Each structure stands twice: as structure tokens, then as C-alpha cells.
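User: Can you predict the 3D structure for this chain?
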Amino acid sequence: MAAREGKWTPAEPEAPDTDDRATFDATVNADGLRDAYVGRLELSSIPDLELVRVRVERLDATGIACAGASARDLSIAGGDLANADLTEVSVRRLQGRGIGAVGLDVSGARLEDVGLVGCKLRLARGLGARLTRCVFEDCDLREADLESATLDRVVFRGCDLSAARLAGVDLGRCDLRGSRVDGLVVSPDRLRGAIVDPGQLPTFAAALGLRVEELPMP
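Assistant: Here is the predicted structure, written as C-alpha cells:
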């Protein structure tokens, strides 16, 4: 992907527009939050929540329902979004590390310039979501369901995609090298142009009805 590195790499989030870099704990209300450095951020179920230029050391948002929320220029160093309902959200320029998000639902969401490292996204749902310039590195995506999502310049590096569902997803602008793809569900007619490594060929060949076998030794 070296030749494509610049075009496939997510843009970095902008820093908060404030001279006060002291962190504080916060609970967000309906007004949302802008231009802040936060130690612990607690979110509750607020429709149309808005976060802009926020850096968070720990996010606590287990089970929240914030459909239609928006976030721009957000950095999260850790936290929990397990079973959160973030359907139809709009996210632009997000960097996250070590986030627990088992069962997270971002179906119908628009995610642009997102980088996630070491996040637990098992059983996450993103049905019909649109992802542009997103990188998932060392993330657990087992049994995740992205059926009919649109993936444009999306990289899965060192991830576990075992038994994940990418049915109806055009993988022509995806890089899956270095990820585990055992049992990955894909649409055979949507594989053209996908970037894979040699160890992944048996999985994708099976999707095409092919068998990869070596000739027996003479």
C-alpha cells in the first residue's frame, strides 16, 4: 500500500481550540462539548449529541443510545462503548485506542478519517454504514456485521475478522493484509481489487468456489 499511503491514511483530529490543557472530568449534557481536554468523560443517552475538538483519556458510554449524534476531531485514549446505539451518527477525524465496544451498533453511520487501534469490536454492527479512509489496527472484529456497508479506502491491519460478515460489501478499495479471515463472509462478485496476502487466499478462493491445493510430492 506504499504508493497509496497518503490517500488511504486518515487525517489527524484537530487539537482543542483552548490554551487550557488541564484535564477535568465531565458529564455531557444536551449542549454537547467543544474544545476541551477531559480526563474521564461520561456520556448518557442524548439525541443529536455533538462533540467537537475533544481529547478524552477515558470515555464511559456503556449502553448509551445516541442515534444521530455527531463528532468531529475527537481523540479517545481508552474507555467503554459496549452495546451502545450510535446508529446514523456522523463522525469525522477520530482516533481511538483500547476502546471496549463489544456489540456497538453504528448501522447507517457515516465514518470519515477514523483510526482505531487495539479496540474490542466483537459483534459490532454497521449495516449500511459508510466508511471512508478508516484504519483498524489490531482490533477484534470477530462476528462483526458490516453487511451492505460502503468501504472506501479502508484498512484492516492485524485484525481478527473471524466469522465477520461483509456480505454485499464491495471490497475493491479495502486492504485486509495481515488480518485473520477464517470464516469471513463475503460476496464473491464484490472481491475484485481487494488487497489480500497469500495466507488469506484459501478463504477468498473458497468464496469463489475454488480449492487451493499443492501438488503432491513425486
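The first strand starts at residue 24 and ends at 27. The mean pLDDT is 92.
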